[in-house]
Amino acid sequence: MSTRTDAPTRREQILKEAARLFAERGFHGVGVDEIGAAVGISGPGLYRHFPGKDAMLAELLIGISERLLDGGRRRVAEADGHPEALLGSLIDGHIDFALDDRPLITLHDRELDRLRDADRKRVRQLQRQYVELWVDVVRRLYPGQTETQARAAVHAVFGLLNSTPHLAPATADDGRSARTATEELLRRLAHGAFGALGSPA
């Protein structure tokens, strides 16, 4: 969902490695020294960037929630107004997240409750806004659906797409990469799930 091409900052490198390690071993199973070693600096050197592991976890989970919401809003703003194309764009954006940021999905599932109340509420607030953005598009495309039905469908599709940490890459024997094959499978499944709502407007 990002078009950024410049090299990541040291802070971003730290967050990426922290996410990977936290997802692999759990928040309490990783020490500051290990995170530092993964990016080539001493553990205490991390404190120039973050006050501690709790701050890293909060920035990871709040940050990805902000990125998803901002990306969704951008897609809505750039859309030509047709809800079917817009829903396809939202699906593609979320698939990119689900394939490229799998450790963050694992972190959210396992570690959200470790955040301070204020940070956890912020994550939930951002997520609700992201869901409602999708719900609005789904109801425009399937006007016969109630708000509750549309929201249930959105959550179901999120569950499907966010299952990537548990999936083996889809195999392809026609020259496509494993990522491309998985992306196309997820796209078909997501569109199929929404298609179960009925005929689009």
SSE layout and pairing:
Layout: H1 10-25, H2 32-39, H3 53-78, H4 83-100, H5 102-111, H6 117-141, H7 147-161, H8 178-195
How is this structure best described in words?
- This protein has 201 residues and is mainly α.
- It is built from 8 helices and no strands.
- Helix 1 crosses helix 2 (32-39) and helix 3 packs parallel to helix 6.
- The relative contact order is 0.11.
Binned strand content: under 5%
Radius of gyration: 18 Å
Number of helices: 8
Give the beta-strand count: 0
Q: What would the average pLDDT be, to the nearest integer?
A: 91
Largest sheet: none
Question: What string, H for helix and E for strand, traces the elements in order?
Answer: HHHHHHHH
Helix content: 55-70%
Overall morphology: globular
Query: The CATH topology of the domain at 57-195 is what?
Result: Tetracycline Repressor, domain 2
Q: Structural class of the secondary structure composition? A: mainly alpha
CATH class group of the domain at 57-195: Mainly Alpha
Q: Architecture of the domain at 57-195 in CATH?
A: Orthogonal Bundle
Residue runs with pLDDT of under 50 for 5 or more positions: 1-5
**Terminal residue distance:** 27 Å
Could you state the CATH homologous superfamily of the domain at 57-195? Tetracycline Repressor, domain 2
